[in-house]
Amino acid sequence: MQFTINRAVFIKAMNNVSRAISSRTSMPILTGVKLVLDNNGLTLTGSDTDISIETVIPVTDDQATLQVSEPGALVLPAAFFSNIVKRLPGETFTLSNTTGFQAKITSENSEFDINGQDANNYPHLPEIEVRNNLTLPAETLTEVIGQTVIAVSKQLSQPILTGVHFILAGGNLTAVATDRHRLAQRTVAFGDSDVSADIIVPGPSLNQLQAMLDEVETVDVRVAENQVIFQLGANTTFYSRLLEGNYPDASRLIPTEKRTTLTINARDLLQTIERAALLSHEGRSNVIQFTVSDEKSLISSNSPEVGRVEEQIFAAETAGDELTISFNPDYMREALKSFGDEQIQIGFKTALDPFTLVPTNNETNFIQLITPVRTY
């Protein structure tokens, strides 16, 4: 194989597929990037078996200025190859493979020879039968992922909870995540559609996908038996395996009764929580107290090893019973960040029951739930 290509365009494509490449894998060939060159363009593939990303640089891409001299295929060590290309001196570079599996990379006066592997030994991308197909604005999908993936579990002992549960039914997409200490749920409408699916996508897959969504306007989502495929524009395809099992009924965790409510700007409260967390993080328990009353509402933290902090918060409105509740500030901080600068209502039942955070307009059908910490 032999081609010449714009270096910046190639690096951008390489950065995308590298998101699926791990240095720790039981299959050494998966530490490499697969390059397939034909007369239509250059295809790059990266995979760690859980995630696979394929991106095509077509010969019709004016910015790429791809010149195909001889079609072929090769697997090159991803990290080493990427570092070489990023440091080449010229705007373009040429890669050629004339004998065996060794590649020659040249740019201006620089020349590298690196050893590759047979592309025929690289695992094939899954051939799947698509059952459902849905197109979403990339901005919407970015928002849904960002608001829910924060609540997935990091404990591999509960693998089903390490993913986000997506339910497509009745023209709505509902995404739910919980680690049993907190919960995040977001619902968006996608119009009249008979698309229906019930899938669990691993949190790490969604984190990598989210980082790629800035570059596209719409995402085509295709659901298969044990895979979900996200088509990002015309040239990039993101594959993720699905988690198997039954996701718990998260709706049962959401309390229906609110005995105390507080309405406040999410960003203002976030700044108060972050100040209080400076002290709680230095202590052993990492707990903050929230006291809500009509007279005065306070955020406080007391650490015998470090000291004490107390700050009055000025809510737009409080109603109901006086209440003091303890919680993990990190959970609260991540929940508040997901609302941005919105006005939210926090609803409490008792000091021992989970409390909810929702936008006051609730047009986004969005809820965050946090379980309090027992301090006695």
UniProtKB/TrEMBL annotation:
Keyword Transit peptide: no
GO molecular function: 3'-5' exonuclease activity; DNA binding; DNA-directed DNA polymerase activity
Subcellular location: Cytoplasm
Keywords of this entry: Cytoplasm, DNA replication, DNA-binding, DNA-directed DNA polymerase, Nucleotidyltransferase, Transferase
The keyword DNA-binding belongs to this UniProt entry's keyword annotation: yes
GO cellular component terms listed in the entry, alphabetical order: cytoplasm; DNA polymerase III complex
Superkingdom of this protein's organism: Bacteria
Domain annotation DNA polymerase III beta sliding clamp N-terminal: ranges: 1-126
Gene Ontology BP, a term: DNA strand elongation involved in DNA replication
DNA polymerase III beta sliding clamp central domain sequence ranges: 136-249
Main location: cytoplasm
Residue stretches making up the DNA polymerase III beta sliding clamp C-terminal domain: 252-373
InterPro entries with a match to the protein in the record: DNA_clamp_sf, DNA_polIII_beta, DNA_polIII_beta_C, DNA_polIII_beta_cen, DNA_polIII_beta_N
Subunit structure: Forms a ring-shaped head-to-tail homodimer around DNA.
Functional summary from the UniProt entry: Confers DNA tethering and processivity to DNA polymerases and other proteins. Acts as a clamp, forming a ring around DNA (a reaction catalyzed by the clamp-loading complex) which diffuses in an ATP-independent manner freely and bidirectionally along dsDNA. Initially characterized for its ability to contact the catalytic subunit of DNA polymerase III (Pol III), a complex, multichain enzyme responsible for most of the replicative synthesis in bacteria; Pol III exhibits 3'-5' exonuclease proofreading activity.
Protein family membership: Belongs to the beta sliding clamp family.
Name by which UniProt lists this protein: Beta sliding clamp
Natural source organism: Weissella cibaria
